[in-house]
Amino acid sequence: MTGPTESGHQVIGVDLGGTKTHVAFAAAAGSSVERRDVVVPSSWRAPLGDFAADAEGLRDLLVAHGGDSVVDTTVVVGAHGCDSTAQCLALETELRTRFRGPVRVVNDSELMGPAMGAVTAIGVVVGTGSIATARNATGELLTAGGWGWLLGDEGSAAGLVRDATRAVLARFDDGDPLEPLGRRLLDAFHAQDRAELALAVSSAESAENWGRHAPEVFAAADEGSPLAQALIDHAGADLARLVSQLRARGTTSDTVVAGGTVIQRQPRLQQSLRSALAETAPAVTLHILDRAPIDGAIVLARDLHASSTPSR
């Protein structure tokens, strides 16, 4: 089994995420839509930073689903955990010892721009966590944000719940009456009062345990909570600041592609980000991802295949 075409006429795109791995075997010709997709859990991955083990595991995965000939195929990987140029090159180097075809590794957020037809776009991921990425004129990977659910990840699901909890507790301390956001957080965390709320939130063991309650913030805004809307607007401003930070450090792109479960599902946050960008970076155009990032891996793989194939 070699995918939709023989190995010399196909490319492979990989979206190597933290929870799932999406692989697409596609025809090398950009005009062809012929494709076969495979999605598996990323439980096969080694701990982040073990690039040799990741390369070996990915080779085994691709051979299992595409046959031995995949080692001669052009492969592009968007990898969660490759957050610097050096990390991308480290995984790329390990893959090149296991594949004979052209190989390229980028951060997984860098798949969003190509998927939307904007290869050099600034990518802003807003899901359980948040980060912005772009390349400068020399091809160096630049990142802003992404410092994790305890230290940062503003605008993300976890970040919204953390900031909402702090805001609600501050209202308690001020003696202000309970409003929709406070009621929703108390219910969500099965808390009777502010002490129980603080304890329940502080006892969460992961970003996911915080982030799953993020819809409560948007629901409270829908119910007319000024506090919830202010938090959403602040999150949009925080995300816009990530874009400004990347532009100040050398990326020249005037296109932003934002994706991830939170930004794609929540129009209020989309509008807050759009409004914030209009103030801080009026030349920038915002697009919300509306397709699978793996599409971007195929775009990059086809480009790499074309540039690596001698003209006749």
From TrEMBL:
Annotated organism of origin: Microbacterium azadirachtae
InterPro entries: ATPase_BadF, ATPase_NBD, Euk-type_GlcNAc_Kinase
Annotated PANTHER family: N-ACETYL-D-GLUCOSAMINE KINASE
Name of the protein: BadF/BadG/BcrA/BcrD ATPase family protein
Sequence ranges assigned to domain ATPase BadF/BadG/BcrA/BcrD type in this UniProt record: 12-298
